[in-house]
Amino acid sequence: MKYYSALRGYTSKRLEEIEQADILVGIPCFNNQTTVAHVIQMVTHGLNRHYKDLRSVILIADGGSTDDTRETAKEFEIKPWQEKIVSIYRGPAGKGTAFRSIFEAAKHLGVRAVMVVDSDLRSITSDWVKHLLEPVLDKGFDYVCPVYTRYKYDGTITNNIVYNFTRMLYGLRIRQPIGGDFAFHGKLAAHFMEQDVWETDVARYGIDIWMTTMAVTSRMNICQANLGLKIHDAKDPSEALGPMFRQVVHTLFVMMEQNESHWREIMGSRTVPTFGRREEGEPEPVAVNLERLVTEYRTGFGQFESLYKSIFCPDCFGELKRCADLQPDRFDMPIQTWIQVLFETAATFHSWTHNRTQLVNLVTPLYLGRVASFINQTRDMTSAQAEAVVEAQAQAFEDHKADLIRVWDEKARPLDTGNNA
After folding, report:
1. Average pLDDT in the 349-370 region?
2. What is the percent of the chain where pLDDT is above 70?
3. Backbone angles phi, psi at 280, to 5 degrees
């Protein structure tokens, strides 16, 4: 059964009482009682320092937290000329539904600009408010993506998949397409809200890549804002990123399919305007379990070997098989193999009409293996040096785009539809 609003009655009533605002800051949250007060504090201070003459509303969009997130958010006192709403959103559980409630609130209030920040941030400062909102309010941009200084093993889905694909497909070097902290024009929020995607993976973890791709393919005026160090509740990819990986990649492939006419003719890439100065320094380390990553890879390869053999070309499959025999500290999946894995998976996804979710599940162990390989490759590097490796990888994807188009077209003409059943 479809639902028609992510806002509960009391939230809609509060928005009607407020009537109008210039700025809406959305904070999606779920069980973030230890960090949400700091995020609200930085937001209210930033709005006071930089936009005191504009009417601002802070909306905490909670997913039904079982800790004291909502109580903490309600008790924190903001500046008296700002408004705060703490609401439990309605609809499928996930970050995307929280965003939909923020989009709806933005439309209700007719705001000029929307800013969204994660609720687990420990490095947010009051200046983030200016860095994100100024391009929309004062410089004529429609959509602002973040750029952070991150630890080399933070953001593994971005570094190994999403940055590579966004840059290669759409020709824009948007470094953090799923960064979590964005700003955009109020009219763009209304446009997002009206799309019929709210019972798909977009309603969960797919929201960030969906928004960024929508902004790119709609030819919005896009820029980046340097936000400095990002310190948050980062997750070990071997333990906690499985659902996020599956939903982000599924959304990425669906958007790729829907926008084929947009990306097929694009070759090369260009930078987008970036404001602010990049911070130097080594970020807080993120713990990773290399042995577990490789164990997950081996287990997955053992379970799905015959399927991998049917999906991937012989050279690619041969490399994956070789990797399954490597010790954790020697694990090395070449970038060319990883490129082939993702190209052939995307093309297979396009050619299959069923079992697409299972296909993405099959690739999860291979992603964990690629992360293990990146860890070994950059073990003795600083995060800045590892960033150069990420850039080289993205360039390699870009250089092989013709291979993607070739395999995409080949798999679109399947000889045997048995895998579609």
Report:
1. 94
2. 95
3. -95, 170
pTM above 0.90, yes or no: yes
Give the fold, CATH level 3, of 9-275: Spore Coat Polysaccharide Biosynthesis Protein SpsA; Chain A (3.90.550)
- The secondary element (H helix, E strand) that includes residue 245 is helix 242-258
pLDDT in tens, 170-208: 999 999 999 999 999 999 999 999 999 999 888 888 999
- 92 compared with 418, residue with greater pLDDT: 92
Stated length of the chain: 421
**What integer is the mean pLDDT of 212-218?**
96
H or E, element range at 114: strand 113-116
Instruction: Match 């948050």 to its residue by tokens.
Output: 232
Give me 9's structure tokens. Answer: 């009655």
Q: Which residue(s) pair with 282 in the sheet?
A: none
Query: Which of left, alpha, beta for 94 (phi over 0: left; psi -120 to 50: alpha)?
Result: left
Distance between first and last Cα of the chain: 26
**222-229/274-275 β-pairing:** parallel
- C-beta separation of 100 from 6 below 8 A: yes
Quick one: tokens of 229? 């160090």
Q: Which strands sit side by side in the sheet containing 83-88, from one edge to the other?
A: 83-88, 56-62, 23-29, 113-116, 182-185, 143-149, 222-229, 274-275
User: E strand or H helix at 282, and its extent?
Assistant: none
Res 238: pLDDT: 62
223/30 Cα distance (integer angstroms): 29
Boundaries of every domain in the chain: 9-275, 290-420
**Quick one: pLDDT band at residue 346, thresholds 50, 70, 90?**
very high
H-helix segments, 259-355: 260-263, 290-311, 314-323, 335-351
Tell me if residue 326 falls in helix, strand or coil: coil
CA dist 374 and 235 (Å) reads 16
Tens digits of residue pLDDT in 122-154: 999 999 999 999 999 999 999 999 999 999 999
pLDDT higher than 70, residue 240? no
| Element (DSSP H or E) covering residue 279 | none
Two structure tokens written together for 316: 């690619």
| Ordered DSSP codes for 36-103 | HHHHHHHHHHHHHHH-TTS-EEEEEEE---SSSHHHHHHHS---TTSEEEEEE--SSSSHHHHHHHHH
**What is each CA distance from 280 to 145, 228, 274, 283, 416, in whole angstroms?**
19, 8, 16, 9, 53
Phi–psi pair at 48, nearest 5 degrees:
-65, -40
Taking the C-alpha atoms of residue 105 and residue 119, their distance in angstroms, rounded to an integer, is 18
pLDDT of residue 83 exceeding 70: yes
